[in-house]
Design brief:
2 helices; single chain; two-stranded antiparallel sheet; two-stranded parallel ribbon; 68 residues; alpha+beta
Length: 68
């Protein structure tokens, strides 16, 4: 799961040329798993959201939710 997230980030954050502009996209991924991080859709989304904001602190990375 983490390996796939890193591969996705690497592919999506490569520099691109659009017209005459060079563009670089950033990506942060939050990962939550059933049932460890939530048993309902809402709980899983909430856990993934927390993990995503943790990942945003480091930029262009993934973070797997761990309960506090």
């Amino acid at each position: 799961m983490e390996k796939t997230a890193k591969r996705l980030i690497n592919q999506c954050t490569e520099k691109m040329v659009i017209g005459d502009m060079e563009v670089k996209v950033g990506m942060s991924i939050g990962i939550a798993t059933y049932p460890h991080n939530g048993r309902t859709y809402e709980d899983l989304i909430s856990s993934a959201d927390v993990a995503m904001y943790k990942a945003k602190e480091s930029k262009n990375t993934s973070y797997i939710f761990t309960s506090c």
